[in-house]
Amino acid sequence: MTFSIVARDPETGAVGVAVQSKFVSVGAVVPFAAADAGAIATQSFANVAYGPDGLDLLREGYSAEEAIRRLVADDDEAESRQVGAVGQDGSVAAFTGEECLDVAGDVQGENYTVQGNVLENERTLTAMAEAFEGAAAGGLPERLIAALHAGNDAGGDSRGEQSAALYVAREAGGYAGGNDRWIDVRVDDHPRPIDELERVFKLYDVTLLRRAEPDETRALSGETAAAVRAALAGLGFYDGDPGGAEAFGERDRAALGDFRGANNFENHSLAAVEDALARGWDDADGEGADRLVDAIWRGLSERPRA
User: Which member of 108, 213, 259, 265 has the lowest number of beta carbons within 10 Å of its beta carbon?
Assistant: First the structure.
């Protein structure tokens, strides 16, 4: 009852999986990735040993196709399994057993594979592939999320929605560079798990991932400055009256600095956060803290990840 995409970014070496299912905590079952090997999604009566065993095979130099062939050859229940794999060598493969519940199938392209079972229709898979290939903005995580949205909009899991996950590995990409767990975001039970996954990913991105500092920064001014000031005031970051439509000043930057610290956004300088708000505010969604975070994410997204 799952659809997923497994992919590799040849420019950065990042490898990852995005998945949605009418199944609680799908992120605890399906996605596996390692920066020195590749990525694997194991689903449909999942054999979770396919994850670590498959990564070991990829690490040893087997192609994705060879790794999957070996995995299913040793599994008496292989015909009920579904698995997709991408190796760091660029190889891509998938297997959909004959006993997987309809609609079930898989589609491959350059550096990615999509697969699903108990789907509403086959269009779910082709829509995911088209969205991944056609995503014009962002890096691998944004393209993976775009594929999930497209698959869900095209039909998705025939039993509905419940959980989603995004797991991406990149060399030294983890917290303080201590491991390869670059992005690890899960929504275990939610009526709209992909929407919630995207919201949490944006917060994760602003908090934990680094962006190049801007060469030139924009200061907040005019209606945008007034709107940001009002949002900060509504969250309690001012003592007394925050003022009206005057230019963003030192008192305002102190309040913005407090907001940055309270939300652990210190990966970005205060000037970079103000610049991001100036660039992203008009297109941002939500109100209060949600709009501030979305605006910062949109503004930061104009710069490459470090």
Answer: 213
